[in-house]
Amino acid sequence: MRNNHLKERELFNIYSGDDDIATAKEHLEGCDECMAKFDEYVKEAELFARDTTVQPIAELGDDFFVRQKNRIIAGVGESEELDKKFLRLMPKLIPAACAMLVVILALVISLQKPTTLNVVEQQYALSEEDYADDLLLREIEDMKNAPDIDGLGIFVDLDDSEPEEVDDKGASILKTIIKA
Amino acid sequence: MYQRRVIKIAYGYAGNIHDADDITQEVFITLYKNLDKLTSNEHLKMLIYKIAVSRSLDFLRKNRFKRFFSNFSQMEESVVDNLTDGKVQQEQEMLDKEFDTQLHNATRKLSPKQKSVFILKNHEGLSVKEISKITGMGEATVKTHQYRAIKTIRLWMRLQNKEKDHAK
Q1: What is the 3 state secondary structure string of chain B?
Q2: A48 and chain B: CB distance < 8 Å anywhere?
Q3: Cross-chain residue pair B29–A12, CB shorter than 8 Å
Q4: FRET pair for A180, CA 20 to 30 Å: which of A73, A163, B88, B108?
Q5: What are the beta bridge partners of residue A152?
Q6: How far apart are CA A104 and CA A106, in angstroms?
């Protein structure tokens, strides 16, 4: 037989009829203090099992359950009606949903497709080299158009024609003319 | 037959009769939709309990914040109501009502799992095995929750009595 008193969990185990309570039961039968504790525990636990809905239900009136039954039947009817409505609408809803999906897809695709302007831009798009040349030409053009500094023409139009060939023979003739 | 049982279970969770009434309606509508799954009377009983517990837990989940804030005010209001009503009632009735209020307040402190076990065990008299089937918890877990539920209620009942004595 054990010397220490029973703990609350052991009192509960005896109260709930647990299988493994032989030692605890043995102690309980020989200990007045624990027996008093156990009696109190059982009394309290049984009091807690009291139905607390009696008063609130009574306050709702005698016919509460009849009214509630009617509400439940109405609720079942409503839910059935909703289900039926949904089933009736299903054949119409599916094509509508499909059409909506198609519209959304079309919108998405059209947003991704390049516009006419984009096509033109792509056609006339410059390669990197072309672009560099173009930039250089523009810069030269800008510099030509820039105002002269102190009236000095920095840029002179160059004659693109082939330079005349001056041979040694011509030079000697020129020298004799000068001497004469 | 099951109407009273369901409303008792729902009241245990919701804490007020109007929400319990709403839960009860939902339970029976759900049951109606699942009638084809029924195999026997015993199955009907278990199915009703299962739906009642599940709908009540859904209610607790939806009203978590509401419950948190209402917990503070409710206890005092109920006790005051009882004392004023008690003037016209018999003494025993008043004491019963006061005890019910205290017990009701104490059960509101239980966790959802403790509540499930406490209600099904104490109010419905179901066995640990049956509760285990309904709630999906192991039998040992059911017992632990039952033990903790009783412990919590004992503590809260004592606390409320102490507060009452202190107020006197």
Answers
A1: CHHHHHHHHHHHHHCCHHHHHHHHHHHHHHHHHCHHHCCCHHHHHHHHHHHHHHHHHHHHHHCHHHHHHHHHHHHHHHHHHHHHHHHHCCHHHHHHHHHHHHHHHHHCCCCHHHHHHHHHHHHCCCCHHHHHHHHCCCHHHHHHHHHHHHHHHHHHHHHHHHHHHHHC
A2: yes
A3: no
A4: A163
A5: A149
A6: 5
Q: Residue B34 has what pLDDT? A: 84
Residue A176 identity: T
Consecutive 10-residue runs of chain A (180 residues): their mean pLDDT?
A: 79 82 84 91 86 79 83 82 82 87 90 63 68 82 70 55 60 70
Burial class of residue A12, CB neighbours in 10 A (0-12, 13-18, 19+):
buried
What φ, ψ does residue B109 adopt, rounded to 5°? Answer: -85, -10
Stretch (H or E) spanning A25: helix A22-30
User: Considering the entire predicted model, what is its pTM?
Assistant: 0.61
Dihedrals phi, psi of B70, to nearest 5 degrees: -80, -20
Instruction: Check A12 against B147: CB less than 8 A apart.
Output: yes
* Strand residue runs (E) in chain A: none
Whether residue B154 lies within 8 A of chain A, CB to CB, comes out as yes
Phi–psi pair at A154, nearest 5 degrees: -75, -40
Closest chain A CA to residue B143: A16
For A38-47, B70-79, B94-103, which range has the lowest pLDDT when averaged over its residues?
B70-79
- Do residue B4 and residue A65 have CB atoms under 8 angstroms apart? yes
Residue A44 has its nearest CB partner, among B21, B143, B154, at B154
The ipTM, to two decimals, is 0.72
Q: Report the distance separating Cα B52 and Cα B147, nearest Å.
A: 22
